Request: fold
Amino acid sequence: MTIRAHQKLLLTGAAGGLGQALRERLKANCSVLRLSDRVAFGVAGAGEEVVLADLADAAAVDAMVQGVQAIVHLGGVSVEGPFGPILQANILGLYNLYEAARKHGVQRVVFASSNHVTGFYRQSETINADAPARPDGLYGVSKAFGEDLSRFYFDRYGIETACVRIGSSFPEPKDRRMLATWLSFDDLHRLVTACLTTPVLGHSIVFGMSDNAVTWWDNSRARHIGYAPQDSSDIFREAVYARTPAPDLNDPAVQFQGGGFVKAGPFAD
Ligand code: NAI
Ligand code: 15L
Reply:
């Protein structure tokens, strides 16, 4: 059940894949949904506001954040690549976001972190939120920075954050690895709703996954969030096995949780 816990909620990265998936779903969570991205993505509908902002532009981010009670932060570079854009969007941009949140009294943030914070754990390991970060690239490092930055803003200023280490959130799992990492769009919304509405969030790390039979992640440290996934990748297993080759166990992309990200790059800036 979705609770309309906030008057005005900000969704960044609204033009992206997950932003589009959450746009309609999040309207049930608030009276007004403010949507933001740096690229144009259409006009505001009923109950919506649209604010274009580049996360690297502190003044634009300040205006984007003013007047909201909570933020679902999806904006930023979402894959491994050259460091320049990652630095601007995921590091400087996140600092700008938390500074604006501090100035404007935002109480809670749901931060789209990533499984690539821990991508260099092996697929034969099960880890929980206490496992030290082992980023599998500069993108993963930027998300680890976001987890640390948000912890600082909680310890110092009391802004609560859920760092959601999203696995693979797409309409369906695309390959065998995603049978373990898949997060359905409806479960993503359930998880974001739980993060927005649990009474005491503090600073929490939660793995964003559906109820998949094979998993590398243990969410027992996040029980206080109250996330109960209702979907599973298991219904896709047979079809995924039929259309994909048997894995090469010597391939780092098969050995490590981060999959292909562990061997991506280096990229020229
Ligand atoms: P996406 O790449 O489709 O969307 C990201 C959005 O951020 C884009 O619309 C882009 O224009 C915007 N953006 C990029 N740089 C920006 C900047 N400097 N200023 C303002 N906006 C900027 O990514 P997707 O799949 O929707 O993911 C959303 C978030 O979730 C990302 O932060 C990503 O790292 C995270 N995530 C997603 C996963 C997935 O399976 N889809 C898995 C793990 C994490
Ligand atoms: C991510 O962090 C990316 O944003 C997404 O595009 C997927 O590649 C996902 O991880 C994944 O690991 O499958």
Summary: Residues 83-104 form the longest helix (22 residues). The first strand starts at residue 6 and ends at 12.
